[in-house]
Amino acid sequence: MYRCVFLKRCHVVEPLKFENGKPCIPVLPAGERSLPSFLTTPQLGNIVSSKNDTRLRIFSGTANPSLSQEIACYMGLELGKINIKRFADGEIYVQLQESVRGCDVYLVQPTCPPANENLMELLIMIDACRRASAKNITAVIPYFGYARADRKTQGRESIAAKLVANLITEAGANRVLACDLHSGQSMGYFDIPVDHVYGQPVVLDYLASKRICSDDLVVVSPDVGGVARARAFAKKLSDAPLAIVDKRRHGHNVAEVRLQRMLLIAGTISKGAALLHQEGAREVYACTTHAVFSPPAIERLSSGLFQEVIITNTIPVLEKNYFPQLTILSVANLLGETIWRVHDDCSRV
What is the DSSP letter of 137? Predict the structure, then answer.
């Protein structure tokens, strides 16, 4: 998991409640369910009128079907019919079960673990749409695997992010829609347009509902590389103070905290939280977009260091990985709204 931000506060407004150890999934009031505050714009009325457009099709891969269904529901559409199966030898078979000739097709498939299998499935889905004469093919990738391999840090290393971008482009995609890439430079690896959206508004909307006193709030970046994002986050939280954790990385997935201030195995974020408690923080909240949860992340996150761990559903979380402090926010409205704007050739000014 990456794009992590710590929140430190010294006052509890309302106690948190959890049931049966399952994550809390916030639901907006009935009147706001389709239009959360961060999506409310004067242009939405025009977009709703186009929801009967039969030239827009959404298909889901097998990586995160629940998110795909949420996106389709927000847009007032049904998921396209597609047959995806695996042969005994592991090969993937894809067949569209409805016509997409002349259509704008959106394929929702994060390349989360198992990354190679989900990536290959996405490529075959794109190829199937291209051979079925789709007009435009957009790969909607809520979580873009291999994004961390975006540069060479040592000699004789591969830049896998560029390789994957080439594969998606050569397979036939005309556009990519991604959420919270590991770094902005990854967009430059594609030779096709990339729409990069951020999960930050979803998290901010949720935090606003918690009515946290700004006087008791400090936003903490888990590393130097996340300072810009943490600063923007703090500015939108009533210009809260900013702190930084300086870490020294000795190898892949191994980190050491040195000063006061992804989530794969939760090492960096857990050590940072422990340090914050040592410095007097009463509550620490972890906010991140992508919950990869590689072992021993669950053990570390549920150890009592965090009051709440706030993630999004760009990656599906298995029920066995639920723990009381976990809160899952949906990015379905964010992605659905972006798809409408891309389809209608409009943008928010």
Answer: E
